[in-house]
Amino acid sequence: MAMKKGTHVLLEMYGVKRKYLDDILFVKKVFKKAIKESGLVEIKGKFVYHKFKPYGLTAATLLTTSHIALHTWPEKNYLALDIFACTDEEKVMKAMEIMIKEFKPKRVKKEIKKRGYVVK
Predict the structure, then answer these.
(1) So which residues are the catalytic ones?
(2) How many domains does one find in the chain?
(3) Which of 6, 68, 92, 94 could form a disulfide with 86, with the two C-beta atoms 3.0–4.6 Å apart?
(4) 54 inside domain
């Protein structure tokens, strides 16, 4: 028997305003909103980031069921985002929708993968 263990969303967002891609306070706010409104659960204090010079960010947060990670290239108006959770797929999809709405890309490329099938 096969059993799905998680949903992994890989997003590439193109045409995102540069100001969103180099503002760690904005990114943290979007992460918090997506987590809260989707029903995912963040492990308290597990949001981390690195700000590159002259610009760009890497940010991640640990969830009780996995993680959300983001990498930005403001000079290209581009970001890459992963949402992986071993929970209800609906929560992952809701978090994805919120991220897209908040970053306002002109174009999005999505890959949705089912991960961790176990054969018994």
Answers:
(1) 66, 71, 86
(2) 1
(3) 6
(4) no
Distance CA 59, CA 57 (A): 6
CATH number of the domain that 114 lies in? Answer: 3.60.90.10
> What is the per-residue DSSP string for the chain?
-EE--EEEEEEEEES--HHHHT-HHHHHHHHHHHHHHHT--EEEEEEEEEE-SSS-EEEEEEESSEEEEEEEEGGGTEEEEEEEESS-HHHHHHHHHHHHHHH--SEEEEEEEEE--EE-
Domain region containing 20: 2-44+69-119
Q: Is residue 50 part of a domain?
A: no
Is there a domain that residue 61 lies in?
A: no
In this predicted model, what pLDDT tens digit does every residue of 28-84 receive, in sequence order? 999 999 999 999 999 988 899 999 999 999 999 999 999 999 999 999 999 999 999
102 falls within a domain: yes
Please name the amino acid found at residue 77: N
